[in-house]
Amino acid sequence: MKLIDFDGLFDEKLTQYMSENKNKHNEKEWEDIIPKLYKKFGDTRIAKIGCTPKEYYANMSTEELVSTLKGHLEQAVPVPEFLCAELENRKDSAALLPLLETDDTETASYAINLIGEDSRAFATYFSILETLRFDEEIRSDVADLLRTHADEVLPQAIALYEKGLAKEYMLEILSRVKAREEKVYDILLSAFLNAEDTSRTAGYLAAYGDERALKPLLKKIEDRSIGFVEFQELKYAIEALGGEYNEPRDFSADKDYLAVEAAGLRANEDEGLQS
Predict the structure, then answer these.
(1) Residue 256 has what pLDDT?
(2) How far apart (Å, rounded) are the C-alpha atoms in residues 208 and 172?
């Protein structure tokens, strides 16, 4: 299938338009105008194809749309927003799932953005987390989607965690479970008690919201060996669960504390110079 570079065609028209109107708008105004021109371009009839960009994709089958998207990515031809919009309108995630079988990060990213929270993709999303096929950004995107459906994917998250796979991501998902499950609390508490640095695991207990976690959190925050960042995360978790910890602590020798203080001083100095 021959690919049409609609973005390239738009850029040509935009360059001409901006040249003809260069003295009519400032940079900020152009930032607002260009997206409107692009939207209008989608409804503009292109003589050589006999239809508008939107109509061009609307006339394709879903399979042809997916194939076209894949072609754009493989041949490094810019993917028009009109193509993605038409795929979104079809709401056919099953047709997009094969794109997740690739090892190409860009292709996977497009597929995930188009599929979104469709439950038919959850098994594949877990596979991505389990096999570490993609970079951190892709895995984080997938974990975010699963996290919003934590109760729905609870069995899979527990199973993967108990296998020792993608444990940090599974903790993130489990911490968002709304149902009160003893198994979930036990996993989150165990992860907290066995962590060398509780900065993240304290947050998972806070997110889950079981007040029983206050006792181990308050015990840990009394540990004088913890650093400033870990202390702050523990304090946040305690307060999120309805507790409080107000005992003064001295972190004047802590490098993270010193960095925060230095950043605050610089910000105040910059603010003073601007006023």
Answers:
(1) 84
(2) 10
Of 263, 201, 253, the closest CA to residue 227 belongs to 253
Question: What distance lies between CA 49 and its chain's CA centroid?
Answer: 37
SS3 sequence of the chain: CCCCCHHHHHHHHHHHHHHHCCCCCCHHHHHHHHHHHHHHHCCCCECCCCECHHHHHHCCCHHHHHHHHHHHHHCCCCCCHHHHHHHHHHCCHHHHHHHHHCCCHHHHHHHHHHHCCCHHHHHHHHHHHHHCCCCHHHHHHHHHHHHCCCCCCHHHHHHHHHCCCCHHHHHHHHCCCCCCCHHHHHHHHHHHHCCCCCHHHHHHHHHHCCHHHHHHHHHHHCCCCCCHHHHHHHHHHHHHCCCCCCCCCCCCCCHHHHHHHHHHHHHHHHHHHHC
List, in order, residues 6 or more apart from 190 with CB less than 8 Å away. Answer: none
Q: Does the reported pTM lie above 0.85?
A: no
Q: Rounded mean pLDDT of 76-104?
A: 93
As a whole number of angstroms, the longest Cα–Cα distance in the chain is: 74
- CA 137, CA 142: separation in Å to the nearest integer? 9
